[in-house]
Amino acid sequence: MIKKLGAAALSCIMAVSLLTGCGSDTSSREERPKDELVFVNYRDIRDLNPHLYAGEMYAQEMLYETLVTFTEDGGYKGVLAESWDISPDGTTYTFHIREGVKFSDGEVCDAYAIKANFDAILENKDRHTWLEMLRLLDSISAPDEKTFIIKLTKPYYPMLTELSVTRPFAMISPKAMKNGSTKDGVNAYIGTGPYVLGEVVTDEYAVFEANPNYWGEQPKIKKILVKVIPDNQTRIMALEKGEIDLIFGKNMIDADSMRKFKDNADFTVALSDPTSTRQIVMNTTKPILNDKKVRQAILHATNKQAISDGIFYGAEPPADTLFAKTTPYCNIDLKPFDFDTALAEKMLDEAGWLKGADGVRAKDGQKMQLSLLYNSDSVAEKAISEYLQSEYSKIGIVLNISGEEEQSYRDNMKAGKFDMIFNICWGMPYDPQSSLAAMRYPVYGDYEAQLGLEDKAQIDEAITKIMVSTDEKERQDLYTFVLTRLHEDAVYIPITYECNKAIYRSDLKGMHFTQTQYEVPFQDMYFE
Q1: Contact, 432 vs 463, CB < 8 A?
Q2: Are strands 369-375 and 246-248 parallel, antiparallel or unpaired?
Q3: How many Cβ atoms from other residues are within 10 Å of residue 198's Cβ?
């Protein structure tokens, strides 16, 4: 669903400056054929191995396909599998593979090719610990070229959802594998999708061309040039000059740029429904944050509306809960932690943290000092950190903020080396099931952050039951229990709901947001 932006949402300016870059083509829209489109991204397409996680997902979506995909109404439709059957006990999935599909190198995409892909994925099973399905996997088989069977040890309701996501369950040509393996790289990026990869100049551009042998409907856009332009203002200038046609992505467009184009009839500005939740995770194993009353006080001291208005200018609405109510199973009655500094101070007093002559709270000789870690590549996280540092100081909390480059930041998150740290939930179709399932293991920071909870074991047990429940009411009751416990335990400070963004030429039709924030639906686009 596309939302046109109103004036109130973009009444102020926030500039974002990154690095500068250039592409390979400076021709204007009028000079290009109508079946060609110029897209832009802030970085290179990188490694497009569909069984690993380094490449750009929009590019992988263009090249590769999965057995099934999810639909806007929450259902599923066949892609490489034309249909499927599920055993009455929910443990056996029999997929009937679509006939006549070939990889772009001419290799037949039959059940044997599907099994070769699953064998490659399972060889690297430890890399995919976030997938609960792999923990429940009993066997895979291809009894003939038209039939692929997955057997589980227990029923698993998100099974089709996990098979729908691009990685790691997208199919690559077995000929492109290295001795039947993909964990150490592939020889070429060969899929069955609507596009094939052409010329690539690292950190400059990549060319995608329509796959002439695609089994589905041929896309109207026959050639897509993806230019690498890291700098926001340079991207905007290129759009104005007609050198690019579409800017797409939640981190690709700042509020100033959206305000600039919203009244320009030559361009369309769009926002999606909420895709994920921007949040701060509090580590309950740390001495100060081990006290639930302290965590709840910090939630009451966080002015999310001010962050939404002052940093995102309304483009990201304030978040009251870990998942938006539009997320499946998450439309439950949870009382928000309203912004109330008087209540926050009262709760801190009751917890024994009293203000000293210097205005800083202390207890048993210990000052109330906390650290907040953010990704130094994120201008928004830095701005939020500085705002919270100032606001928390007013109630006697010293907040020490620091930014680290992405890999270091993620390593510290996974290891639990933080008091407070920024994170996001995973977005559709991964929410809420995959985000919650991963909380039981040290995949990201959630596991370490929750270890100080008295009810951690009960929460994990309920999540495990959710995954294998075959009763819809029981599943909803379990979700309600887990989300209520996490909410009342105040492990997370939901900040805002992130939205996907796009600015594009108004003569480009068919642009829309899909069920995942990572897909750009090029195959639906065309120029008038």
Answers
A1: no
A2: unpaired
A3: 12
Q: Report pLDDT digits (tens) over 405-457.
A: 888 988 999 899 999 999 988 888 889 998 999 999 887 889 999 999 999 99
CA distance 98 to 78: 9
Q: pTM here?
A: 0.83
Strands 246-248 and 68-70, sheet pairing: unpaired
Amino acid at 166: T
Q: Which residues contact 5 (CB under 8 A, 6 or more apart)?
A: 258, 262, 269, 270, 271, 315
Beta strands in 18-162 (DSSP E): 36-41, 68-70, 76-78, 81-86, 92-97, 137-144, 147-152
Which amino acid does the sequence have at 124? N
The rounded radius of gyration (Å) of the Cα atoms in the chain is: 24
Distance CA 373, CA 234 (A): 29
The secondary structure of 396-447 as a DSSP string is T-EEEEEEE-HHHHHHHHHHT--SEEEEE---TTTTTHHHHHHTTTTTSSHH
Q: Which domains does the chain have, with CATH numbers?
A: 3-49+54-61+191-273+501-527 (3.40.190.10), 67-173 (3.40.190.10), 274-498 (3.10.105.10)
Distance (Å) of CA 413 to CA 387, 404, 432: 22, 11, 20
Q: How far apart are CA 89 and CA 45, in angstroms?
A: 42
The pLDDT tens digits for 288-317 are 999 999 999 999 999 999 999 998 888 889
